[in-house]
Amino acid sequence: xxxASAVRVPRxxxxxxxxxxxxxxxxxxxxxxxxxxxLWKAALWLFRRPFRLRLFLDQMEFIGVQSLPIILxxxxxxxxxxxxxxxxxxxxxxxxxxxxxxxxxxxxxELAPVFTALMIAARAGSGMATELGSMRITEQIDALSTFAxxxxxxxxxxxxxxxxxxxxxxxxxxNVIGLIxxxxxxxxxxxxxxxxFIEHFRYLTDPSDYLQGAIKAAIFxxxxxxxxxxxxxxxxxxxxxxxxxxxxxxxxxxVSVLVIDFFVGDALGVFFPFQT
Length: 276
Description:
It is a single chain. The chain has helices spanning 2-45, 53-63, 68-91, 99-137, 140-146, 151-189, 194-204, 207-233, 239-271. The protein is elongated and about 70 Å long. It is mostly helical. Helix 4 packs antiparallel against helix 6 (151-189), helix 4 crosses helix 7 (194-204) and helix 6 (151-189) packs across helix 8.
């Protein structure tokens, strides 16, 4: 009896350990599946009547136009700080003339799309989650279904489409204001030659660099808006749950941007190989 027990206990222990480890795996795939299903439904309803253009325009204004002040502020100082660090690093090699190209490439490929997405996830993503969560707990979403209005088409699709459209636009704005910030620091403060700054920027940056940034921004827009809509749409409970859903939306949107950035950047490197 004792020998049999000694054999069975480790098996139960391994089975219990396997069950514990399977919980987060099942949770991840369930979480991913739910998000994918919502995205699929939103995409399907995009091409079905009625087409409510006003909803799309309202969301584009909320996500893009109302985010413009924070994009301008963060973009200017991001460019200035990038130029500050680039000047310090390139001075070690006597290559300060490449500051414009260095900052331009970093903004186009990484800083502009990523920082823009993070700022909009914090501002617009939290707003979307809060609004949808409040509508859920006050039964406004259920009321839409009662009046034969599909909640996905009315609430989710416009937000996702507006994010996909406006994130690349805001990224281009970030690029422009970031370059202005870099110019102000490098040329007016650090004394970098203006001709070298502009000429090396024009020579080493390419429209494909900005295209890659725009593609990233569109994907980031879909990711952060989907995370925000999912958290707000599926709120259950009261006002406390709305606050928690808003927090989860910002965290999930920001983390998804950083994770997706790695994989999308690697994939884009295949289609847009670096050329000297």
